[in-house]
């Protein structure tokens, strides 16, 4: 198990302990080993699942959400890619997909109606898709704070690569000028989040031409590779994202084997 701690976790080298006050005669003096223990950060398990079908990931989220809500599993972050798929949130309409079933088959793209907020978006190879399954009641803050923290995490990740982004006066998501580079759509049930974000690292952006993305007819999309003028890998983007996620949310990240979460598909009934 590989543990990733946020930057500056615990006492820094050279940091001095608070000077102990003189205790009155006969008073109890605490043992040295009990002085100023660093605050224990909550653990978030992280599984990099690679390329998996959308339905499998959706079923997995719902089962893990059930376990996190019941206190049977720690908060969990799933990082992955999907084969070509269009997902319609609760406000999405079939008319937001601009091609017929025959063309969808040619594109090799599935369509799923799902229970997150928002309209229609695209997922495919070359994106980092993240599904944080977090108990907000333990973590603190509501859905709006959670979404804004996701945005800040993505902005910090992009800034590390030199991609300049804007967040003020923009719809939810992350933008480079007028071009959208990351989408966010979530659901909170029993205080636990599902769904999450999709960061365009180096996907085939032409797939966005076949939808009214996020319900905005004239929205343009972009990617890290397009903005930087050279290829960026999904693995590099994930490696940059994880420490920022831990820092922004105050987690100690514990990388786990994909099989440790995928076994949930077998062991736990799908919630109704």
Description:
- The structure is a single chain.
- This protein is α/β, with parallel strands linked by helices.
- The protein has one domain (44-267): BirA Bifunctional Protein, domain 2, CATH 3.30.930.
- Helix content is 28%, strand content 25%.
- It contains eight helices and twelve strands.
- Strands 1, 2, 3, 7, 8, 9, 10, 11 and 12 form a nine-stranded mixed beta sheet that branches. It has a three-stranded mixed beta sheet with strand order 5-4-6, with no helix packed on it.
- A hairpin with a 2-residue loop joins strand 9 and strand 10 (192-200).
- Helix 4 packs across helix 6 (234-249).
- The two termini are 33 Å apart.
CATH architecture: 2-Layer Sandwich
How far apart, in Å, are the first and last alpha carbons? 33 Å
CATH homolog superfamily: Bira Bifunctional Protein, Domain 2
Low-confidence stretches: 9-35
Which features would summarize this protein structure in a list?
8 helices; 272 residues; single chain; three-stranded mixed sheet; alpha/beta; BirA Bifunctional Protein, domain 2; nine-stranded mixed sheet
Q: What layout of secondary structure does this protein have?
A:
Layout: E1 2-4, E2 43-51, H1 54-69, E3 75-81, E4 85-88, H2 101-107, E5 110-113, E6 120-123, E7 127-133, H3 136-139, H4 143-161, E8 174-176, E9 179-189, E10 192-200, E11 220-221, H5 224-228, H6 234-249, E12 252-255, H7 258-262, H8 264-267
Parallel strand pairs: 2-3, 2-12, 4-5, 9-11
Antiparallel strand pairs: 1-12, 3-7, 4-6, 7-10, 8-9, 9-10
